[in-house]
Protein backbone atom coordinates (compact mmCIF):
# COMPACT_ATOMS: atom_id res chain seq x y z
CA UNK A 1 0.00 0.00 0.00
CA UNK A 2 1.59 3.34 -1.06
CA UNK A 3 2.39 6.06 1.49
CA UNK A 4 -0.04 8.49 -0.16
CA UNK A 5 -2.93 6.41 1.21
CA UNK A 6 -1.75 7.28 4.71
CA UNK A 7 -1.53 10.96 3.83
CA UNK A 8 -5.25 10.97 3.03
CA UNK A 9 -5.90 10.06 6.69
CA UNK A 10 -6.50 13.48 8.29
CA UNK A 11 -6.06 12.40 11.89
CA UNK A 12 -2.93 10.37 11.11
CA UNK A 13 -1.48 13.49 9.47
CA UNK A 14 -2.31 15.59 12.53
CA UNK A 15 -0.49 13.06 14.72
CA UNK A 16 2.53 13.12 12.41
CA UNK A 17 2.43 16.92 12.37
CA UNK A 18 2.51 16.91 16.16
CA UNK A 19 5.40 14.46 16.14
CA UNK A 20 7.21 16.60 13.56
CA UNK A 21 7.22 19.84 15.56
CA UNK A 22 7.85 17.91 18.76
CA UNK A 23 10.94 16.16 17.40
CA UNK A 24 12.17 19.34 15.69
CA UNK A 25 12.26 21.19 19.01
CA UNK A 26 13.73 18.21 20.84
CA UNK A 27 16.54 17.68 18.33
CA UNK A 28 17.61 21.32 18.64
CA UNK A 29 17.20 21.22 22.41
CA UNK A 30 19.16 17.97 22.78
CA UNK A 31 22.34 19.53 21.41
CA UNK A 32 21.71 22.76 23.32
CA UNK A 33 21.24 21.09 26.72
CA UNK A 34 24.05 18.60 26.19
CA UNK A 35 26.45 21.40 25.41
CA UNK A 36 24.99 23.74 28.06
CA UNK A 37 25.36 21.39 31.00
CA UNK A 38 28.87 20.38 29.95
CA UNK A 39 29.83 24.03 29.46
CA UNK A 40 28.51 25.01 32.89
CA UNK A 41 30.04 22.08 34.75
CA UNK A 42 33.08 21.13 32.60
CA UNK A 43 32.44 17.67 33.99
CA UNK A 44 31.67 14.47 32.05
CA UNK A 45 30.30 13.09 35.33
CA UNK A 46 27.64 15.82 35.62
CA UNK A 47 26.67 15.30 31.97
CA UNK A 48 26.31 11.55 32.57
CA UNK A 49 24.24 12.12 35.72
CA UNK A 50 21.85 14.40 33.82
CA UNK A 51 21.51 11.73 31.14
CA UNK A 52 20.61 9.21 33.86
CA UNK A 53 18.05 11.57 35.38
CA UNK A 54 16.38 11.92 31.99
CA UNK A 55 15.63 8.18 31.89
CA UNK A 56 15.04 7.47 35.58
CA UNK A 57 11.30 8.36 35.60
CA UNK A 58 10.73 6.21 32.50
CA UNK A 59 12.17 3.17 34.25
CA UNK A 60 10.53 3.72 37.64
CA UNK A 61 7.16 5.20 36.69
CA UNK A 62 6.12 3.95 33.24
CA UNK A 63 4.78 0.55 34.37
CA UNK A 64 2.54 2.36 36.83
CA UNK A 65 1.57 5.12 34.38
CA UNK A 66 0.58 2.58 31.74
CA UNK A 67 -1.78 0.97 34.24
CA UNK A 68 -2.99 4.36 35.53
CA UNK A 69 -4.16 5.62 32.11
CA UNK A 70 -5.72 2.35 30.94
CA UNK A 71 -9.27 3.63 31.49
CA UNK A 72 -8.46 7.25 30.52
CA UNK A 73 -8.73 9.02 27.17
CA UNK A 74 -5.24 8.70 25.70
CA UNK A 75 -5.64 11.78 23.50
CA UNK A 76 -6.32 13.99 26.55
CA UNK A 77 -3.29 12.55 28.34
CA UNK A 78 -1.05 13.44 25.39
CA UNK A 79 -2.42 16.99 25.17
CA UNK A 80 -1.85 17.69 28.87
CA UNK A 81 1.59 16.07 28.92
CA UNK A 82 2.84 18.16 25.98
CA UNK A 83 1.39 21.34 27.46
CA UNK A 84 3.09 20.69 30.81
CA UNK A 85 6.44 19.97 29.17
CA UNK A 86 6.18 23.17 27.15
CA UNK A 87 5.72 25.21 30.33
CA UNK A 88 8.72 23.54 32.02
CA UNK A 89 11.00 24.11 29.02
CA UNK A 90 9.86 27.75 28.82
CA UNK A 91 10.90 28.21 32.47
CA UNK A 92 14.31 26.72 31.70
CA UNK A 93 14.69 29.09 28.75
CA UNK A 94 14.01 32.05 31.05
CA UNK A 95 16.69 30.84 33.47
CA UNK A 96 19.21 30.58 30.63
CA UNK A 97 18.25 34.02 29.26
CA UNK A 98 18.72 35.61 32.68
CA UNK A 99 22.01 33.81 33.29
CA UNK A 100 20.58 31.94 36.27
CA UNK A 101 20.76 28.43 34.83
CA UNK A 102 22.83 25.96 36.82
CA UNK A 103 23.45 22.22 36.36
CA UNK A 104 21.02 21.56 39.23
CA UNK A 105 18.24 23.63 37.63
CA UNK A 106 18.80 21.78 34.34
CA UNK A 107 18.63 18.44 36.17
CA UNK A 108 15.42 19.45 37.94
CA UNK A 109 13.75 20.47 34.68
CA UNK A 110 15.01 17.30 32.97
CA UNK A 111 13.53 15.12 35.69
CA UNK A 112 10.16 16.92 35.70
CA UNK A 113 9.83 16.77 31.92
CA UNK A 114 10.63 13.07 31.96
CA UNK A 115 7.89 12.49 34.55
CA UNK A 116 5.30 13.94 32.17
CA UNK A 117 6.83 11.96 29.33
CA UNK A 118 6.07 8.75 31.25
CA UNK A 119 2.40 9.67 30.90
CA UNK A 120 2.64 10.51 27.22
CA UNK A 121 4.57 7.49 25.91
CA UNK A 122 2.11 4.70 26.83
CA UNK A 123 -0.76 6.92 25.67
CA UNK A 124 0.94 7.57 22.32
CA UNK A 125 1.54 3.84 21.83
CA UNK A 126 -2.21 3.26 22.03
CA UNK A 127 -3.21 6.02 19.62
CA UNK A 128 -1.61 4.90 16.34
CA UNK A 129 -3.53 1.58 16.02
CA UNK A 130 -6.75 3.59 16.42
CA UNK A 131 -5.93 5.74 13.40
CA UNK A 132 -4.78 3.14 10.84
CA UNK A 133 -5.69 -0.42 9.88
CA UNK A 134 -3.63 -3.40 10.95
CA UNK A 135 -2.46 -3.94 7.38
CA UNK A 136 -0.98 -0.43 7.44
CA UNK A 137 1.12 -0.88 10.59
CA UNK A 138 4.43 -1.43 8.79
CA UNK A 139 3.89 1.52 6.46
CA UNK A 140 2.52 3.71 9.25
CA UNK A 141 5.46 3.06 11.58
CA UNK A 142 7.95 3.30 8.70
CA UNK A 143 6.59 6.70 7.62
CA UNK A 144 6.43 7.95 11.21
CA UNK A 145 10.01 6.87 11.91
CA UNK A 146 11.32 8.38 8.70
CA UNK A 147 9.50 11.65 9.32
CA UNK A 148 10.89 11.75 12.85
CA UNK A 149 14.41 11.25 11.55
CA UNK A 150 13.95 13.88 8.84
CA UNK A 151 12.92 16.25 11.61
CA UNK A 152 15.98 15.32 13.66
CA UNK A 153 18.08 15.88 10.55
CA UNK A 154 16.74 19.41 10.17
CA UNK A 155 16.93 20.12 13.90
CA UNK A 156 20.47 18.93 14.43
CA UNK A 157 21.53 20.65 11.21
CA UNK A 158 20.36 24.08 12.35
CA UNK A 159 21.01 23.66 16.09
CA UNK A 160 24.62 24.85 15.96
CA UNK A 161 23.65 27.87 13.86
CA UNK A 162 20.73 28.81 16.12
CA UNK A 163 22.92 28.60 19.22
CA UNK A 164 25.70 30.56 17.54
CA UNK A 165 23.48 33.30 16.06
CA UNK A 166 20.71 33.69 18.64
CA UNK A 167 22.03 32.08 21.81
CA UNK A 168 21.32 28.97 23.85
CA UNK A 169 18.06 30.37 25.21
CA UNK A 170 16.53 30.63 21.72
CA UNK A 171 17.09 26.93 21.07
CA UNK A 172 15.32 26.11 24.34
CA UNK A 173 12.40 28.48 23.63
CA UNK A 174 11.92 26.80 20.25
CA UNK A 175 11.58 23.46 22.04
CA UNK A 176 8.94 24.98 24.36
CA UNK A 177 7.02 26.30 21.34
CA UNK A 178 7.16 22.89 19.67
CA UNK A 179 5.49 21.27 22.70
CA UNK A 180 2.70 23.86 22.61
CA UNK A 181 2.05 23.33 18.89
CA UNK A 182 2.14 19.56 19.35
CA UNK A 183 -0.43 19.81 22.14
CA UNK A 184 -2.76 21.84 19.91
CA UNK A 185 -2.47 19.48 16.92
CA UNK A 186 -3.25 16.44 19.06
CA UNK A 187 -6.22 18.31 20.55
CA UNK A 188 -7.56 18.76 16.98
CA UNK A 189 -7.46 15.00 16.29
CA UNK A 190 -10.71 13.03 16.18
CA UNK A 191 -9.97 9.65 17.72
CA UNK A 192 -12.59 6.92 17.92
CA UNK A 193 -11.39 5.73 21.30
CA UNK A 194 -13.73 3.04 22.58
CA UNK A 195 -13.08 1.96 26.15
CA UNK A 196 -14.76 -1.30 27.13
CA UNK A 197 -17.07 -1.27 30.13
CA UNK A 198 -14.80 -3.77 31.93
CA UNK A 199 -11.79 -1.55 31.31
CA UNK A 200 -13.63 1.56 32.51
CA UNK A 201 -14.45 -0.14 35.80
CA UNK A 202 -11.00 -1.66 36.21
CA UNK A 203 -8.82 -0.41 39.01
CA UNK A 204 -5.21 0.66 38.99
CA UNK A 205 -3.97 -2.37 40.95
CA UNK A 206 -5.83 -4.78 38.64
CA UNK A 207 -4.39 -3.11 35.54
CA UNK A 208 -0.90 -3.11 36.99
CA UNK A 209 -0.98 -6.82 37.93
CA UNK A 210 -2.53 -7.76 34.59
CA UNK A 211 0.18 -5.84 32.74
CA UNK A 212 2.93 -7.74 34.56
CA UNK A 213 1.25 -11.10 33.96
CA UNK A 214 0.61 -10.44 30.26
CA UNK A 215 4.17 -9.21 29.65
CA UNK A 216 5.76 -12.19 31.40
CA UNK A 217 3.60 -14.75 29.61
CA UNK A 218 4.29 -13.32 26.15
CA UNK A 219 7.85 -14.56 25.65
CA UNK A 220 8.28 -12.93 22.25
CA UNK A 221 7.51 -9.49 23.71
CA UNK A 222 9.79 -10.17 26.65
CA UNK A 223 12.70 -11.09 24.35
CA UNK A 224 12.14 -7.98 22.24
CA UNK A 225 12.13 -5.82 25.38
CA UNK A 226 15.39 -7.42 26.54
CA UNK A 227 17.00 -6.82 23.12
CA UNK A 228 15.82 -3.20 23.23
CA UNK A 229 17.21 -2.87 26.78
CA UNK A 230 20.61 -4.18 25.67
CA UNK A 231 20.58 -1.95 22.58
CA UNK A 232 19.80 1.11 24.69
CA UNK A 233 22.41 0.08 27.24
CA UNK A 234 25.28 -0.22 24.77
CA UNK A 235 24.64 3.28 23.41
CA UNK A 236 24.71 4.89 26.88
CA UNK A 237 28.47 5.60 26.91
CA UNK A 238 28.22 7.62 23.69
CA UNK A 239 24.96 9.38 24.57
CA UNK A 240 26.19 10.33 28.04
CA UNK A 241 29.70 11.38 27.00
CA UNK A 242 29.29 12.66 23.44
CA UNK A 243 30.07 16.29 24.29
CA UNK A 244 33.09 15.29 26.35
CA UNK A 245 34.25 12.92 23.58
CA UNK A 246 33.97 15.55 20.85
CA UNK A 247 35.74 18.13 23.01
CA UNK A 248 38.58 15.96 24.34
CA UNK A 249 39.15 13.49 21.47
CA UNK A 250 38.40 15.56 18.36
CA UNK A 251 38.98 18.98 19.99
CA UNK A 252 35.75 20.09 18.34
CA UNK A 253 32.64 21.97 19.40
CA UNK A 254 28.85 21.91 18.99
CA UNK A 255 29.22 21.83 15.19
CA UNK A 256 30.68 18.30 15.45
CA UNK A 257 27.55 17.21 17.32
CA UNK A 258 25.41 18.70 14.56
CA UNK A 259 27.32 16.78 11.87
CA UNK A 260 26.93 13.54 13.82
CA UNK A 261 23.24 14.19 14.37
CA UNK A 262 22.60 15.06 10.72
CA UNK A 263 24.38 11.92 9.50
CA UNK A 264 22.75 9.46 11.89
CA UNK A 265 19.31 10.98 11.23
CA UNK A 266 19.88 10.73 7.46
CA UNK A 267 20.77 7.07 7.84
CA UNK A 268 17.73 6.45 10.02
CA UNK A 269 15.51 7.98 7.33
CA UNK A 270 16.84 5.53 4.76
CA UNK A 271 16.53 2.66 7.24
CA UNK A 272 12.93 3.56 7.98
CA UNK A 273 12.02 3.85 4.30
CA UNK A 274 13.51 0.51 3.30
CA UNK A 275 12.14 -1.33 6.35
CA UNK A 276 8.77 -2.41 4.81
CA UNK A 277 10.56 -4.22 1.95
CA UNK A 278 13.38 -5.51 4.13
CA UNK A 279 10.83 -6.87 6.59
CA UNK A 280 9.63 -9.31 3.92
CA UNK A 281 13.15 -10.58 3.17
CA UNK A 282 14.83 -10.90 6.58
CA UNK A 283 13.53 -12.64 9.68
CA UNK A 284 12.63 -10.63 12.77
CA UNK A 285 15.47 -12.02 14.88
CA UNK A 286 18.16 -11.06 12.39
CA UNK A 287 16.65 -7.61 11.85
CA UNK A 288 16.60 -6.89 15.57
CA UNK A 289 20.05 -8.26 16.38
CA UNK A 290 21.89 -6.33 13.66
CA UNK A 291 21.97 -3.38 16.07
CA UNK A 292 24.75 -5.07 18.09
CA UNK A 293 27.50 -5.45 15.46
CA UNK A 294 26.52 -2.02 14.13
CA UNK A 295 27.07 -0.47 17.57
CA UNK A 296 30.47 -2.13 17.98
CA UNK A 297 31.43 -0.81 14.54
CA UNK A 298 30.25 2.65 15.64
CA UNK A 299 32.54 2.91 18.67
CA UNK A 300 35.58 1.42 16.94
CA UNK A 301 35.16 3.54 13.82
CA UNK A 302 34.77 6.76 15.83
CA UNK A 303 37.98 5.95 17.69
CA UNK A 304 39.84 5.09 14.47
CA UNK A 305 38.77 8.36 12.83
CA UNK A 306 40.62 10.28 15.53
CA UNK A 307 43.87 9.63 13.65
CA UNK A 308 42.68 11.80 10.72
CA UNK A 309 44.49 15.14 10.85
CA UNK A 310 42.59 17.03 8.14
CA UNK A 311 39.46 18.67 9.58
CA UNK A 312 37.30 18.16 6.48
CA UNK A 313 38.30 14.54 6.07
CA UNK A 314 37.61 13.99 9.77
CA UNK A 315 34.12 15.49 9.49
CA UNK A 316 33.44 13.42 6.36
CA UNK A 317 34.58 10.24 8.12
CA UNK A 318 32.40 10.98 11.14
CA UNK A 319 29.43 11.65 8.86
CA UNK A 320 29.84 8.33 7.00
CA UNK A 321 30.19 6.36 10.27
CA UNK A 322 27.05 7.92 11.73
CA UNK A 323 25.10 7.47 8.48
CA UNK A 324 25.82 3.73 8.31
CA UNK A 325 24.90 3.28 11.97
CA UNK A 326 21.75 5.34 11.45
CA UNK A 327 20.51 3.01 8.70
CA UNK A 328 20.66 0.05 11.07
CA UNK A 329 19.08 2.00 13.93
CA UNK A 330 16.20 3.06 11.67
CA UNK A 331 15.50 -0.52 10.58
CA UNK A 332 15.69 -1.91 14.11
CA UNK A 333 13.48 0.86 15.56
CA UNK A 334 10.75 0.24 12.99
CA UNK A 335 10.90 -3.49 13.63
CA UNK A 336 10.49 -3.10 17.38
CA UNK A 337 7.47 -0.78 17.01
CA UNK A 338 5.71 -2.98 14.46
CA UNK A 339 6.26 -6.23 16.36
CA UNK A 340 5.04 -4.63 19.59
CA UNK A 341 1.75 -3.63 17.94
CA UNK A 342 1.30 -6.93 16.13
CA UNK A 343 1.87 -9.11 19.18
CA UNK A 344 -0.24 -7.05 21.61
CA UNK A 345 -4.02 -6.61 21.61
CA UNK A 346 -4.97 -2.96 21.13
CA UNK A 347 -6.83 -2.65 24.44
CA UNK A 348 -3.70 -3.80 26.28
CA UNK A 349 -1.23 -1.52 24.50
CA UNK A 350 -1.06 1.30 27.07
CA UNK A 351 -0.36 -1.16 29.88
CA UNK A 352 2.10 -3.30 27.92
CA UNK A 353 3.94 -0.37 26.34
CA UNK A 354 4.52 1.06 29.80
CA UNK A 355 6.21 -2.18 30.91
CA UNK A 356 7.98 -2.52 27.57
CA UNK A 357 9.45 0.98 27.72
CA UNK A 358 10.48 0.52 31.35
CA UNK A 359 12.24 -2.77 30.64
CA UNK A 360 13.91 -1.45 27.49
CA UNK A 361 15.33 1.51 29.42
CA UNK A 362 15.97 -0.15 32.76
CA UNK A 363 19.77 -0.21 32.43
CA UNK A 364 20.17 3.39 31.29
CA UNK A 365 20.05 5.35 34.59
CA UNK A 366 22.32 3.00 36.56
CA UNK A 367 24.76 2.61 33.67
CA UNK A 368 24.83 6.38 33.11
CA UNK A 369 25.78 6.91 36.75
CA UNK A 370 28.42 4.18 36.47
CA UNK A 371 29.81 5.76 33.31
CA UNK A 372 29.91 9.11 35.10
CA UNK A 373 31.87 7.53 37.95
CA UNK A 374 34.45 5.72 35.82
CA UNK A 375 34.91 8.81 33.61
CA UNK A 376 36.80 10.25 36.59
CA UNK A 377 39.35 7.47 36.28
CA UNK A 378 39.35 6.59 32.56
CA UNK A 379 39.41 8.83 29.51
CA UNK A 380 36.42 8.73 27.18
CA UNK A 381 38.25 6.90 24.37
CA UNK A 382 39.12 4.02 26.71
CA UNK A 383 35.49 3.76 27.83
CA UNK A 384 34.41 3.59 24.18
CA UNK A 385 36.94 0.81 23.46
CA UNK A 386 35.72 -1.31 26.38
CA UNK A 387 32.13 -0.67 25.24
CA UNK A 388 32.89 -2.06 21.77
CA UNK A 389 34.42 -5.22 23.25
CA UNK A 390 31.41 -5.81 25.52
CA UNK A 391 29.02 -5.26 22.61
CA UNK A 392 30.78 -7.89 20.50
CA UNK A 393 30.42 -10.40 23.35
CA UNK A 394 26.69 -9.60 23.64
CA UNK A 395 26.28 -9.95 19.85
CA UNK A 396 27.88 -13.40 19.84
CA UNK A 397 25.66 -14.61 22.70
CA UNK A 398 22.49 -13.20 21.12
CA UNK A 399 23.09 -14.71 17.68
CA UNK A 400 23.94 -18.08 19.28
CA UNK A 401 20.78 -18.20 21.40
CA UNK A 402 18.20 -20.68 20.08
CA UNK A 403 15.55 -19.37 22.50
CA UNK A 404 15.25 -16.19 20.44
CA UNK A 405 13.95 -18.19 17.49
CA UNK A 406 10.51 -17.59 19.02
CA UNK A 407 10.75 -14.08 17.56
CA UNK A 408 10.37 -15.52 14.06
CA UNK A 409 7.13 -17.38 14.88
Structural description of this entry:
The chain contains 18 helices and no strands. With 409 residues, the chain is mainly α. It has one domain (3-403): Up-down Bundle (Growth Hormone, Chain: A), CATH 1.20.1250.20.
Question: What labels would you give this structure?
Answer:
mainly alpha; 18 helices; Growth Hormone, Chain: A; single chain
List the helices and strands and how they pair.
Layout: H1 3-7, H2 10-41, H3 44-68, H4 74-97, H5 103-131, H6 137-166, H7 168-187, H8 197-201, H9 204-217, H10 219-234, H11 236-250, H12 254-281, H13 284-289, H14 291-304, H15 311-342, H16 349-360, H17 364-374, H18 380-400
Helix pairs in contact: 2-3, 2-5, 2-6, 2-7, 3-5, 3-9, 3-11, 3-16, 3-17, 4-5, 4-7, 5-16, 6-7, 6-12, 6-15, 9-16, 10-16, 11-17, 11-18, 12-15, 14-15, 14-18
Any low-confidence stretches, pLDDT <50, length ≥5? none
Task: Give average pLDDT, whole number.
Answer: 78
Whole-number count of domains:
1
Q: Identify the overall geometry.
A: globular
What is the helix content?
over 70%
Task: Return the structural class.
Answer: mainly alpha
Number of helices: 18
Number of strands: 0
CATH hierarchy: architecture: Up-down Bundle
Helices and strands, in order, run as: HHHHHHHHHHHHHHHHHH
Summarize this entry quickly:
Helices cover 83% and strands 0% of the residues. By secondary structure, the protein is an all-alpha fold. It is globular.
